[in-house]
Amino acid sequence: MSLDGRLTSPEARDAFLPEAPGSVSMVMHRRKSKETCVTPAERTEQTQWLLAVRDARDREAFGRLFDFFAPRLKAMLLRSGLRDGSAEDVVQDVMLSVWNKAAQFDPHRAEASAWIYRIARNRQIDLYRRRPLPEPELVQEPESAEPDAAQILAMAQEAAQLRAALRNLSPEQTEALRHAYMDELPHSEISRITGLPLGTIKSRIRLGLDRLRRDLSDLRSR
Amino acid sequence: MSKITHHIPEEMLRAYAAGTLPQPFAVVIAAHVSLCDACRASVETEAALGGALLSELAPAGLDEGARDRLFAALDTAVPPPPPLRGSGIFPAPVMEALKGQPPRWKMLGGGIRQQILSADGEGSLRLLYIPRGRAVPEHSHGGLELTLVLQGSFSDCEGRFAAGDVEVASDDLDHQPIAGDEGPCICLAATDAPLRFRAMIPRLLQPLFRI
């Protein structure tokens, strides 16, 4: 992924304002030519695929999810130090969990990518913990609840803004975030690998997240 | 849950999500997140960021047969049993720690009861039952102590903690929690080191050291 893009133009900054949701996709489309980014429309599509798997056990939709996520899951697992063969096995595990646990997916609270990331992350954590990570109780939605298309779309837009905010970070900040979110490294080990003092890493992660939070705060408080 | 005012510090939530916390703390945090919309939102926001980072990773080449292997596995896939649900005042992670059984209290004296859920090299996890208005003996601990209120409330030098609230006590905090007047207080408490009761240890050690 290219890390060149700091959003400095006024219209790019507008993308963070909630009253200008349209400009998000505009910015994303314009950038698409030079970056491998995913537009909100495609993202909603991934969520639709996962819903088709959840509601209709749709294998074609599952295949599309596999084609997008499996190679990226493998990349994430290789980052954390797994050998190629083990990474392949864990990808199989994770994608099988996606199939098996699809009933737990709630598009009002997560996009497909966030939900799949969590399954993968927890699997990754279980590999080096002696015991499985205790998970919070699932939120129970009323059986009769109709899907709220506006809320699902809003999730997609929030995620698009999150990715836009990600691109606004420095390459060092992005790499620190990748360390924290994709690798199986406790924070105290990051400094050993990058040679940076821990305080710097911590403040860098915090700075990155604070900035992401600021960009998202008005969306979250809704 | 009425109103939760004492939350998990963000650093600790992040360590939980990264799987780097000792098991007893991880259970307390999973239990608190089960009860607390704000902390659940934090955890899910972090997952959104993880998902965004995942989506933008450069794809790695898969084995040629990977896709077929997975699709073959779908035919024989057995869905995992549904996770345990919460019961009464105990959210699902506590029910997991209780192995689905109601608590089996042991009397500690003074009407205080406890059930130890786990105690090993990673620390200890226990349920505490404190009768209304009763104080837990003053204690300090070698490490960190997390206490989640499941029913009733307690107060100590740090303030009042009601159902859903978590107290994070570091080793330099000498505190004496007193259960509220509204009824018995039930808590989930985790430490990463054995508890030391201030009043008791000197008394036990006195004959040995003649202090």
TrEMBL record, chain B:
<dbReference type="InterPro" id="IPR012807">
    <property type="entry name" value="Anti-sigma_ChrR"/>
</dbReference>
<dbReference type="InterPro" id="IPR041916">
    <property type="entry name" value="Anti_sigma_zinc_sf"/>
</dbReference>
<dbReference type="InterPro" id="IPR014710">
    <property type="entry name" value="RmlC-like_jellyroll"/>
</dbReference>
<protein>
    <submittedName>
        <fullName>Cupin domain-containing protein</fullName>
    </submittedName>
</protein>
<dbReference type="InterPro" id="IPR011051">
    <property type="entry name" value="RmlC_Cupin_sf"/>
</dbReference>
<dbReference type="InterPro" id="IPR025979">
    <property type="entry name" value="ChrR-like_cupin_dom"/>
</dbReference>
<dbReference type="Pfam" id="PF12973">
    <property type="entry name" value="Cupin_7"/>
</dbReference>
<feature type="domain" description="ChrR-like cupin">
    <location>
        <begin position="104"/>
        <end position="190"/>
    </location>
</feature>
